[in-house]
Amino acid sequence: MRTVRTRLFVMMLLEYAVWGAWAAVAGKYLTDPRPVGLGFTGSYSGFLFSLLPLGAILSPLLFGQLADRYLRAERLQGVLSLLCAGVLFALGRTTDATPFLWWMVAYSFLFAPTVTLTNAIAFAHLSDPTREFGSVRVGGTFGWFLALGCLAGWRAMVGGPVPGDLFFAAAAFSAVLGLYSFLLPATPPAHRGGKALAFLEALALLKDRNFAVFFGLCFVIGAQLDFYYIFVSAFLGTPQSLGGAGATARDVPLLLMIAPISELFVMGFLGKLMPKLGIKRALALGFAAWIVRFAVFATAGSVGASVLGLAVHGVCFTFVFAVASLYVNRIAPPAIRASGQALVTLSLVGLGRYAGTFLAGWVHSGFTRPLARPVSSGGLIYSTTTDWTRFFAVPLGMTVVATLLLMAFFREPQSPKFAAAG
Question: Could you give the number of structural domains in the chain?
Answer without folding.
Answer: 1
